Amino acid sequence: MRDPRMALVGLAAWTGALTGTLLTVGWAALVLAAALVGGAALARRRPGTRALVAALLSVLVAVGVVAVLRAAVVRDGPVADLAAERAVVDLEGTVVSDPRPVQGAFEEQVVVRLDVDRVVGRGRAWRLSAPVVVLGGADWAAVPLGARVSTSGRLAPSDSRGGDEVAALLVGADAVATLEGPDVWWRGAAGVRASLRAAVEHRPAAQRVLVPALVVGDDAGLDPGVAEDFRTTGLTHLTAVSGTNLTLVVGFVLLLARWVGVRGRWLVVVGALGIVGFVLLARTEPSVVRAAAMGAVGLLGLGRNGRQRGFRALGVAVTALLLVSPGLATTVGFALSVLATAGILVLAPPWRDALRRWLPRWAAEAVAVPAAAQLACTPLVAAVSGQVSLVAVVANLLVAPVVGPATVLGLVAGLVGLVWPGLATVIGTLAAWCVAWIVLVARRGADLPTAAVAWGTGPLALVVLTLACAALALLAPRVLRSRALGPLAVGVVVLVALVRLPTPGWPPPGWVLVACDVGQGDALVLRTGPGAAVVVDAGPDAAAVDRCLTDLGVEQVPLVVLTHFHADHVDGLAGVLEGRRVDRVEVTSVPDPPGGVQHVQEVAAEHGVAVSTVAHGATSRVGEATLQVLWPPVPAPPVPSGASAANDASVVLLVEVRGVRMLLTGDLEPTGQAVLAAALPGLRADMLKLPHHGSAHQDEAFLESLAARLVLVSVGQDNTYGHPSPQVVSDLERTGARVLRTDLSGDLAVVVDPDGALGTLTHEPLGPASSAEPGGAGDR
Asked: Where is the Metallo-beta-lactamase domain (predicted)?
C-alpha cells in the first residue's frame, strides 16, 4: 500500500460517523469543533500536509454533521416523541423490507420496516421521513416491498442502536391498506425472487433455502441447526448478502457481456447496471448497499493494478457509504466487510505469491483469499462470538469451487423461470446439488473435535489475539514461501482441527453432576459410574449436548429424563443418542406441546430407544445415583389461566449421588412450586437447579425453604428473556447460597472431595454453545 491517503480519508469518515451517531448533539459538536481546531494547528506547523489535513477534516466534519442530523431525526423527531408518550397514531409510508413472520407470545406476527412520510397523532399531523418497525397481524404478510401503505397502532420506544436504529415501534397494527403499489422495478425483482424459489422448491429444505441465500441473501426459513453449522465453520457469509455475492453475480454478467462483444466503457455501464440490479434483487437495505459497495471494490481489486486501485476504492466506498448511512459505522457487519476486503487486498497477494513457490496459481489463490479475509476478521469475530474458528479457512477452501456455480446457476434459474419454468427447475436442481456439497462441508466441519475454540471477550484477550493475528500476517509469507515449512504449517492447521485439544482437569475427579453449557436450555448429566451417566434434558442443540457428554467421557446412558417437551429441553435429544448406548427415555405425563412430543418420538424411534412416562413417587437406583420422582402428580393439577401447562408439568427429581442431595426442577412455575412445597414441607437439598433458567416467575418462599448451599442456573448468554432475574439471584445469594451460571462460566460441575466436602468447578467448552432461543409458551 504505497499511497495510504484514501485509507486515511475512510478512517476520518468512520470517526465522524461514530462521533455523530454515538454522542449527543452537544458532545458531537464539541468533538467536531475540537477536531477542526487541532487540524488547523497541525496544518500550520506542517504546510506540506495542509491539503491532506484539510481533506480529512472536511470528510470528518461532513460525515459527523450528517450523522448528527440523522440521529436527531431518529432520537428527537416527532415520531420518537410520540413513541415516548405511547401515542395511538395513523401512519403513511413506504414498505422498505420484506415482511418476516415471527412467533409472538400468543400468536404469529409479522415484522416489517416502514419509511414513514406522514404521521397523525395527539391532534397534529407531520410530514417527515422516519424509519419505523411495524409489529402487525397476518395481513402484513401479503404487502409487497415498495408499496405505499397506511395503518394505525400504538407507538412504542425502540431500544435499537447504531446502524439499525429506528425511530419507534408500531404495535397492534393488525389492519393495513395499500395506497400505491410498488414501482415496476420492485415488481420485476419480486418476480425473479419468486421464480428462483419456485425453481428449487422440489429440493430438500436446506437446499431450497440456501440457493436463494447465495444469490440474494434470502435465508428465510433456514434450519437453526444448519445456521449453527455455518457459524461454526465460518461460512455464514454465504447465507447473507455480502460482497462475494455481488462479485460473483456481476462478474458473471461482465463475462456474458464480453462474450457477446461488449468492450471498453460499455463494460463499465454493464457493470453498473449489474450492481443496480443486484441491489434491487437483494433489497435496498443498508446491509445490501454496504455489500454492493464492498463487492464493487473487490471487482476493482481483480483488475490491473488491483491492489492499489482496490485500496483507494475501499477508502472511497467507506466514505460514500457513511455519508449515505452514517449508522453503518456502529454495525458489526460493516466492520467485518471492510476488514475482509482490506485483508484480501493487502494480505492475499503476498500470501498467494509465497504459496506459488510450491502450489499452482489457482490453488495458491484459493487458499490465500479466504485465509486473508478470515485472519483480518478474527479479532472482531472473537469479540462478538467469544470463539475462534479453526476450520473456517479449510471449509471456505472446500466450498470455493461450488460457490460460484451455485450462485450463477441460481441467478440463471430465477431469470429463466420467468419464461420457461421447466428449464428453470433443471437449472435450479444443478444449483441445489452445488449447495448440497456446501451443507455437507458445514455439517462435517462443525462436527470436528475442535471446529472452534472459546476465546475471551475482555480487553486483554482481544489485544493478545490482535497482536497474534498481526504477527501471523507478517510471518505468513516467509513461512509459506518455504517448500518445507509451508506444507508443514498447513498440515498443523489441519491437524489442530481434526484432533481434540486436551482439556487438563476435565472431567474433574469426584464429579457427581454437570450442568452443560448448551445455550438457552437445560442439559444435566448425573454420574452413575465410569463412562456412564443419566441425562436430564437435552438442551436445544444436538451438537452442544454431544460435545458436553464427549468431554465428560460418557459412552453409556442408562436413562434419559425429559422434564417437559419445550424445544430448549428436547431438541438436542439426537446428540445424546447418537453414538452412545442408551437404554430408555422417560418423559412427563403431559404431552404438551405436540410438536415437541412428535420430535421426541421420532428421534427415539430412529435410534431404537423406548419412550415411557415417569411414575409419580417412584424411586429407582441407577448405578451410583438414586432418583425419586416428586412431580408431576397423577392426575396433573389444573393450571390457572395464563400459566404454562407444559412448564408446570415438568418432571421434578430429587437425586442423591455420593451423599449429595440435588433437586432438579425443570421449568416448574410458581403454581407448581407452591403445591410441591405444601405437599413436602420438609424438603431440603444441598444443590438446586433453579427452575425455568432463573425466570422472574418464582415462589420465593419455596426456593428459600430448600436451604440449598449451591444453585445452578442453566441459561444462554445474552438471551432475550432476561434470564436469570437479577432479583431472584440476589434473593438467593442473601440466603447464603452460591449461584453459578452457565452463560458466565461454561459447564458447571458439582464435585465431592474424598472428605465428602461439596464444591464446584467450571469448564469453558472448546466447541461453541448454542445461542438458540426456541419459542414456546414457557419461554417468557
From this structure: 520-715
Q: Alpha helix locations (H) across 217-331?
A: 224-232, 243-259, 265-282, 286-301, 306-324
Pairing verdict, β 610-613 and 584-587 = parallel
pTM as predicted: 0.60
Kindly report, residue by residue over 243-299, the tens digit of the pLDDT.
555 665 666 677 777 787 877 777 777 777 777 776 666 665 666 666 667 766 766
Q: CA–CA distance from 468 to each of 450, 465, 476 (Å)?
A: 19, 5, 12
The pLDDT score that the predictor gives to residue 323 is 86
Cα–Cα distance, 724 to 604 (Å, whole number) = 31
Cα–Cα distance for residue pair 575/551, rounded to 1 Å: 13
Contact predicate 760/508, CB 8 Å: no
The answer to whether the beta carbons of residues 129 and 115 sit under 8 Å apart is: yes
Give residue 327's identity as a one-letter amino acid code.
G
Write out the DSSP string of 419-457. T-HHHHHHHHHHHHHHHHHHHHHHHHHHTSTTSEEE---
With a CB cutoff of 8 Å and minimum separation 6, the contacts of 281 are 189, 192, 193, 215, 216
Q: How far apart are CA 102 and CA 141, in angstroms?
A: 11
Q: Crossing angle of helices 421-446/184-199, nearest 10°?
A: 70
At 622, is the secondary structure helix, strand, or coil?
Answer: strand
